[in-house]
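Table S2 (text version). Query chain:
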Amino acid sequence: MTTIEESIEIEVPVSTAYNQWTQFETFPQFMDGIERVEQKDDTHLHWVAKIGGDKREWDAEITEQHPDHRVAWRAMDQDGPNGVVTFHKLDEGRTKVMVQMGYEPEGVSESIGSFVGLDSRRVKGDLESFKEFIEGRAHETGAWRGNVEEN
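Corresponding structure-token output:
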């Protein structure tokens, strides 16, 4: 299993960063390779992405969610990653966002990409794009403030 850990500091309050992150259907606007995210209900998402030139789809379940603190998920099958995003208040106007993900690379190209760190650089780039996305707005595009307890 490949594990990725990346973080970034963002110049918005923790609630703004968290609220925007819970708007999963906006992910294609700042995540490279993500074509579509469809939120089926409070805890289920369907992802469509282009990874290494291949189109991939998977379903994910949010296993834990606590406003302004964390969102954890697991792939419902082998095609997607498992992970957690945590939000850390640095001060009233700054937040640290941390991503931890694990996945099984498929095929030679994904295995090589993982070995040379392309997947970590992609996540880092997505975090930088998220930073630009949310800092460039006056406010988040929406919010979901419900709790999901770990099963």
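Notes on Table S2: The chain has one domain: 2-135. The chain has a mean pLDDT of 91.
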